[in-house]
Design brief:
Length: 411
């Protein structure tokens, strides 16, 4: 049992370390969270929208982009990846009404978002190249708040803050909390040049940098994570504009959510394996980002194992106590026989949990671009998110690792 205690204390220390690190970064930069530099000049931009069977959402996405107040937006390129619905026909009709809209179709279905994005990039001749998903809805000022970051010639990518558009179903409301917390944490990472993903709903790249890393890795299930690591590997800076908001549609059913998360985790594992040789080298990629990923996954799996152990142990003790009592009323196994430092571990657990709750509340309080939306987050949703929803994280991670090891890329 001593080994388990040591492991528990070690991982508790890691939890304290990361929470303390994020807190210090926030306290030092809290006045700069929503800052967006003014563009020194007008950077020409083309935005690519990959589309596959998006007939219900693609029109809204295109209109949101065309309504952008960014003056340098020269072209919106919609790439239909051989949809089986009416997406291509709808896009061609829309193309007739908007001179800045170009609609193209891949020769054959690429089977991945990265393939459609790379195909669309062939039609780009502007200084910047942006990407948004076919179900996303960027705010009118989202792109304008991102352009100024490219004043620094070393900046290769800028990403946005993603919020959930469909919040009627309970699972979607939990993801709404999740997305706000992710955005807050990602912005903190930006202050130490450690942003690990440029999201699909709205990200902009310097075309020169995009070409240098040869675009998206079409074999990776999360091409947006891989290209970000590739940028950092090639010493390009990556920033985030918290004031640039793009809405996205999230899964409303558990089965759809599970498929999405399996893909995300498997793509993350692919990326980790691809860049494993950079550990403790290659700047922030090897010194912080990669170790952070590994540590977070180990913590998740350790937590799942510890939780499972405690449940199994409790049930086993109950079974032995109730089923194997003898006439003398003595048991084959007593609770104290395998109890270990419960008070100390419980104390550290409570402190860590309290810090986690405080961090989440602070993060949610900074979702202030839409104050009315912030008010909709109630205590019940937050409690369910922290004590139920998050429990599925390590389970999905373990399942993803199994699928990756067995080379099962279906989801």
């Amino acid at each position: 049992m001593e080994i388990l205690v040591v492991l528990y204390l070690f991982f508790t220390f890691l939890g304290f370390y990361y929470l303390s690190l994020f807190s210090l970064i926030f306290l030092q930069n809290r006045k700069h969270m929503f800052e967006s530099p003014k563009p020194e000049r007008e950077y020409s931009l083309s935005v690519i929208v990959p589309c596959y069977n998006g007939e219900d959402v693609i029109v809204n996405t295109i209109k949101c982009l065309l309504n952008s107040d960014y003056p340098g937006l020269k072209k919106v390129i919609a790439v239909d990846d051989c949809s089986t619905d009416n997406s291509y026909r709808i896009l061609k009709e829309l193309e007739k009404k908007h001179s800045r809209l170009l609609v193209v179709q891949t020769p054959k279905n690429t089977g991945c978002a990265g393939g459609a994005k790379n195909f669309g990039a062939k039609f780009v001749d502007t200084e910047l190249i942006g990407f948004t998903d076919d179900d996303s809805a960027p705010y009118e000022d989202a792109i304008s708040n991102m352009g100024g970051f490219f004043n620094d010639e070393k900046v290769g990518a800028v990403t946005s803050r993603v919020l959930v558009r469909n919040r009627k179903k309970f699972l979607a409301r939990l993801q709404s909390i999740e997305y706000k917390l992710i955005a807050f944490t990602r912005k903190l990472f930006g202050f130490i040049e450690a942003i690990y993903v440029t999201n699909g709903p709205l990200s902009i790249y310097r075309k020169k940098a995009f070409d240098e890393v040869h675009g998206f890795d079409e074999k990776n299930l999360t091409e947006d994570i891989e290209i970000t690591w590739n940028f950092i590997y090639h010493k390009w800076k990556v920033h985030m504009s918290l004031s640039s908001v793009a809405y996205t549609v999230v899964p409303e059913k558990f089965k759809e959510w599970l498929k999405q998360r399996l893909r995300w985790n498997m793509g993350g594992i692919q990326t980790l394996v691809k860049y494993k040789s950079t550990i403790f080298r290659k700047g922030m990629l090897g010194v912080f980002i990669l170790p952070y990923f590994v540590t977070a996954w180990i913590l998740a799996i350790f937590g799942l194992c510890l939780f499972t152990y405690r449940i199994v142990r409790y049930l086993l003790l109950k079974y032995l106590t109730l089923s194997y009592s003898i006439e003398a009323q003595t048991t084959l196994m007593r609770f104290n026989d395998i109890q270990f430092s419960g008070t100390v571990l419980f104390f550290f657990g409570i402190i860590l949990l309290s810090l986690g709750i405080f961090y989440n509340l602070a993060a949610l309080s900074y979702s202030r671009k839409e104050k009315e939306e912030f008010k909709r987050e109630n205590v019940f949703n937050l409690v369910t998110y922290m004590f139920v929803y998050l429990l599925f994280y390590p389970i999905v991670l373990v399942a993803s690792m199994h699928k990756f090891i067995t080379k099962n890329k279906s989801w």
